[in-house]
Request: fold
Amino acid sequence: MDSRPATRTPRPGPTAALLAAATVAACTWPWILSGWDFFTQKSFDHDRFHLHLVRLFAGQWPRVDLTDYPSATGPGMHLALATLAQVFGTGETTLQWLGSLFGLALAATVAWYLAAWRGRAVQGYLLALPLAFNPYFLGNSIWVMTDNASLWMLAIVLLGATFAVATPARLGRWGVAAAAACLVRQINLWVLPAIVLGGWRAGRDGHGSRGRLAIATVLATLPAIALVAFFAWLWGGLTPPQFHEYHEVKIQTSAVPFGLAILGVYGAPLWLALGPGGGFLRKPFTVVALAAWAAITIVASDSFVSLEHGRIGGWVWTLVRETPVPGGWSVALTALSPAGTLLLARLVDASDRRGVGSNARLAAVLFGGFLLAHAANRVVAQRYFDAPTLVFLAMLAALAWPRAGDEAAPKERNRWLAALAAVAAMQFAFAGVSLFRPLLRNGPTPEHRVIDGVGETPWEESARPKS
Reply:
């Protein structure tokens, strides 16, 4: 583990955070504040579930009924916005703007941590830029969604465990963030190994008393576990009762090659900076990663497009639909997922050369945990994978990229700048095609719109503020 301090003077984190937040605001607030945000394909969950649930909770406040409600997620984000609604009201534009702050906070957090690690604000900002330009992330910042609030809390844990030395106080903060993440989405229990491994590494490397670190680690994981256990008891399952049938636990092995394919495509420009590095193919981590990929891909036969099985939406499933799927085994995923596996291994190898291989292996293992957790989800939708994958990609790139003081030729540093700029440009191009252009074409959102064949949903009428 790298023992160098995670921050430098002057502190670059706040500057990078401000730039990242301003970028997200520039890409989202004009659509929100102008009302020019009609896009039913992207805003379905906003229209059908989350906006109405926030209003329902706001109407019930402070005695909110959590026994059953119209969302498969935890109530955390809805409760936060319902609380703010007591001051700011429940207007749609107001709730969208308040919800967008989760996106600004997420991008700012990623930029802050990585700028502090890199020692330069512009580098932290550049590393966060692909996330800030991602169309799924931006859509979740325009409409009322749970994704960004969830990932913001996860990012605090992941970035902290990867880049900072665990102390009892830090472990406590990570535990609070993990519990908050599980309050927003129950599946976020997968992040707890980050706390456990962070505490274990600190003890292994002699950063404090092993006994105190062990106790702090256990205590830090308990709130998230207790919270999910409470909801499981309250609901009689992992989701509110009305979603039991739709969101039953189902193993979707295609989630692993699916996520690796996204990583391989989005991170492809980084090969410009990394180079071939043929020796990394013989490294133990590479061998293990490729073996794990092969084992999972062999059993991932259910990788055809299927609305019934939750495998639909986004460019990956579109590609799968347009390419051969012999025996239900997608040729496209089988071809693209090893690219993600090799990129992951190459980034770990490059980090090893910088003396931070332990940090990178932790990030890679946590990415694998994220994919495996989503393999137990009924829905393998790209919106659940894009932004988290870009956070992991930024973390790994920050470790592999030569820092000030490392031995690296200026040409190598320039290649990294060009490669990261290309990653960001790719996301901006995707956003232009799949988000900005349709928004410009669609125009303002109608005041009363038909959703899923009906006008108002039952809970919209009950949640409508009394005049």
Q: What stands out?
A: The CA atoms of residues 361 and 437 lie 39 Å apart. Residues 246-401 form one domain. The chain is about 65% helix and 0% strand.
